[in-house]
């Protein structure tokens, strides 16, 4: 099996006290998706190129809007064992409309969102890309929950449009 290693990427929260290291490798391994709320075809949409090229996902669900304080959140899915978070963090758990528990991790000093985990993601977690300068040039693979997109916002060019996760 060939492994394409993507050079480690480091980001930080607004105050700089919490750092995030993404050290990813494309091994071609299957990712576990145990959630009955996320069909394999929907999970494939999320992961099809995200693990290989760290393509971004824009999420328009209400939880992501509220946790980001914006019209949508920007994320990349990364395997949990490829993420290192250092610094002061707090965790908040909430129940998504699907019934899944979502664990949101943020800097305890400045409140910047860092990541969120859900059993729907299997072995992965969603990392907020606004904490990394490098992601300003990374294309978007998908837009999720587009049925909740704010009026006046158009589609991100080239991004797969997913109305809802069913």
Automatic annotation (TrEMBL):
CENP-V/GFA domain location: 9-151
Tagged with keyword Metal-binding: yes
Single GO molecular function: carbon-sulfur lyase activity
Leader sequence segment: none
Protein keywords: Lyase, Metal-binding, Zinc
SUPFAM superfamilies noted in UniProt: Mss4-like
Pfam annotation, one family: GFA
Family indicated by similarity: Belongs to the Gfa family.
PANTHER family in the cross-refs: CENP-V_GFA DOMAIN-CONTAINING PROTEIN-RELATED, GFA DOMAIN-CONTAINING PROTEIN
Protein name: Glutathione-dependent formaldehyde-activating enzyme
Species this protein is from: Lyophyllum shimeji (Hon-shimeji)
């Amino acid at each position: 099996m060939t492994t394409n290693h993507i050079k480690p990427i480091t980001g930080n929260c607004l105050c700089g006290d919490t750092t995030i290291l993404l050290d990813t490798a494309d091994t071609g391994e299957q990712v576990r998706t145990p959630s009955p709320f996320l069909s394999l075809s929907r999970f494939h949409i999320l992961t099809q190129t995200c693990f290989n090229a760290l393509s971004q996902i824009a999420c328009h669900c209400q939880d992501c809007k509220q946790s980001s304080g914006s019209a949508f959140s920007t994320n990349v899915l990364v395997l949990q064992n490829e993420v290192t978070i250092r610094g002061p963090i707090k965790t908040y758990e909430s129940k998504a409309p699907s019934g899944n528990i979502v664990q949101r991790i943020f800097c305890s000093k400045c409140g910047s969102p860092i990541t969120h985990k859900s059993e729907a993601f299997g072995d992965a977690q969603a990392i907020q890309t606004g904490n990394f300068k490098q992601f300003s040039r990374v294309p978007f693979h998908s837009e999720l929950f587009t049925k909740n997109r704010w009026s006046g916002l158009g589609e991100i060019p080239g991004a797969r449009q997913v109305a809802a996760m069913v």
